[in-house]
Amino acid sequence: MIIRISETEKLQNDPAYQEFVRNHPGTGFLKIRASSAGEAIPIEGVKITVSKEIGDNTIIFFEGITDDSGMINGIKLPTPERIQSDEEVPRFAAYDLHAVYEKQNFDKLYNISLCCGFGIIQYINITPDVESEMRDYNGN
Amino acid sequence: MAIRYPIVPNEIIVHLGPPNEAAQDITVPFIDYINNVASSELYPTWPENSLRANIYAIISFALNRVYNEWYRSKGYNFDITSSPIYDQTYTLDRAIYENMSNIIDELFNDYVVKGNQIQPYFTSYCDGRRTTCDGLSQWGTVTLANQRKTPLEILRYYYGNDVSIKYDAPVGDNTIGYPGYVNKLGSIGNPVRAIQRDLNRIRINYPAIPEITERLGAYNKETEDAVKKFQEIFALPVTGEVDKATWYKIKYVYTSVKKLSDLYSEGLSPQEANFLYKDELKYGDTGIEMDYLHYYLDAISFIDPDIPHLKTNSVFNDNTKEMVMAFQNKYGLPVTGIVTYTDWKTIIEVYDRFLKSFPSEYATYVNELYPDYFLSKGMSGDDIKRFQGFLLKICQYDKSIPGVRVTGFFDDLTENSVKKLQQDYGFDVNGFVGPLLWKKVVELSKRGE
User: What average pLDDT does this structure show over B319-348?
Assistant: First the structure.
């Protein structure tokens, strides 16, 4: 079942999600940059979904669309607590990031990992879908 | 034979697999490649000096491969592989860590050299826990950084005491290099003009960047706002100042935008290429640059007995040459009598130093000295307040000046008064307060006393 993070009632009754919350008291930060041609063209309107399979459900933590600069800033996602010593391997939370831009038939899944207190930037490089453009042009 | 110095390439071709196996070759901007490798090889939680040492090693490793044409000399059509067994880990489409990206933006054209060698050093490294090697231990750098060692000390621990860091290598084919100093509110000159031109071109593709309407080579509030938005869009620290990282990011995006535009035959227009400030000033030159140069030399010679205080006008004449050569001699510059960017930079630095450490016997004049940056609408602070104080004195006897409020904020009223004075005294009417207008305003303010 797909559950959005805003559906609090459903999540309150989901023991797997509750355990996830207990184990992920920290926060990591995500920025999205969607562009084409070596960042020359920002891509507006790319649909971004960040989700994670927890137990039997897929929880959607974020849904949004890139703005006219091709960006989404300030996405906060739960992470495990930060380990005090920097001489140990940090603990990460992994998520699926799904980017869809229908105008160019672009549909791609990214795996992202975040750790507490740190930010990541996911670049979405969209290349023109020449084949579909040719199809449109030829009318086939 | 001419020595071939390393150049940081705009792009690098990465083979997504071991060298002798069939795999895709992808072309990526060099800086994106370094970001990807750093995020694949290092943990964001590591101390900053550890990250810096590792990033120097990653950059040098890649530049060594490019400089020596390691793979190309073996008949391959790529510069480096994505395999950690042969090179460094590159993970297609991976997200990058913001804290590493900020460091890389600052270091991407610095690399490690050994002794007197020219080539980037082959900085081999390994994890240090799962694998060990003769080179740098990634986990070992964490321990050393926690012992308060600097990045260079960490690199020397692993690669020997004769390694050093070569800073600011030239970038790409035609990229204009970083001028060597931060451009910010009040800065003037060619670099500012270039920043304004580039941002105005980039905003056609990124409309969220506000337009810079006054492209006069003075870093005004409009320029600062445009820089801040650019920094926000391109995930740089939002300071409003153009440091090395922002400079090269602007150049990179501008080049991408122009490259794309080349498809439509759009080149650099003559208007875009026509800079307000010349690259060098020499005997016989005239113009506003000469007035600025004379103002600064005049002020310095007033205090420094080694610089002759000679009469000047708007022409680079014998007196100017004598003052310039004395200045160059005193401050260890090549004594040419020609003012280059380096000379300009030093003149401004010396002037600024004098302002900050003015001898006590001249204390009464300090208030009248130009603050070493252009004042313009939207700026605030004590210097604006000083300037408004002089303006107020003029307004009290010259009723044709629109007026002023001594608030320390350069508002519309201040700008209108500035423009009126510029019009009355034959300056360009642009609302900026440079050294000559400042001097004129100070002089006029005394007439009413």
Answer: 89
Phi-psi region of A41 (alpha: psi -120 to 50; beta: other; left: phi over 0): beta
Q: Which helix (H) or strand (E) holds B346?
A: helix B341-356
Question: A28 with A79: CB under 8 angstroms?
Answer: yes
Do the Cβ atoms of A86 and B235 come within 8 Å?
Answer: no
Q: Please, what is the Cα angle at B53 between B48 and B59, to 5 degrees? A: 120
CATH number at residue A126: 2.60.40.10
Cα–Cα distances (Å) from A138 to A103, A127, B446, in that order, read 17, 20, 78
Give the pLDDT confidence score for residue B163 in this predicted structure.
Answer: 95
DSSP reduced 3-state for A16: helix
Cβ pair A121:B146 closer than 8 A: no
**Left (φ > 0), alpha (ψ -120 to 50) or beta: where does B431 sit?**
left
Q: Which residues contact A85 (CB under 8 A, 6 or more apart)?
A: none
Quote the percentage of chain B above a pLDDT of 90.
50
Long-range contacts of B225-228 (CB under 8 A, 24+ apart): B226/B196, B226/B199, B226/B200, B227/B195, B227/B199
Amino acid occupying residue B325: M
Q: What is the ipTM of this complex?
A: 0.91
How many domains does chain A divide into?
1
- Residues of chain B whose beta carbon is less than 8 angstroms from a beta carbon of chain A are 29, 32, 39, 43-47, 93, 95-99, 101, 139, 142-143, 146, 205-208, 232-235, 252-253, 256-257, 259-260
Query: In this model, does residue B282 exceed pLDDT 50?
Result: yes
Residues of A in contact with B205 (CB under 8 A): 40-42
Which of B95, B139, B234 lies closest to A122 in CB terms?
B95
Residues from A in contact with B at Cβ < 8 Å: 29-31, 33, 37-42, 67-71, 73, 82-83, 86-87, 89-90, 108, 110, 112-113, 115, 118-123, 125
Read off the pLDDT band of B346 (50, 70, 90): confident
Closest by Cα among B115, B118, B97, B104 to B44: B97
Give, in order, the Cα–Cα distances in Å from B91 to each of B84, B88, B139, B367.
Answer: 11, 10, 20, 58
Name the least confident of B53-57, B210-214, B289-293, B335-339: B289-293
In this structure, how many other beta carbons lie within 10 angstroms of the beta carbon of residue A76? Answer: 12
Range of the domain at A25: 2-138
Query: Nearest Cβ partner of A68 from B43, B208, B232?
Result: B208
Q: In the block, which residue shows the tokens 């603990």?
A: A91
User: Is the sign of the CA dihedral B206, B379, B292, B427 positive or negative?
Assistant: positive
Q: Residue B29: list chain A partners with CB under 8 A.
A: 38
Q: Specify whether the CB–CB gap between B285 and B315 falls below 8 A.
A: yes
pTM of the model: 0.72
Radius of gyration of chain A (CA): 18
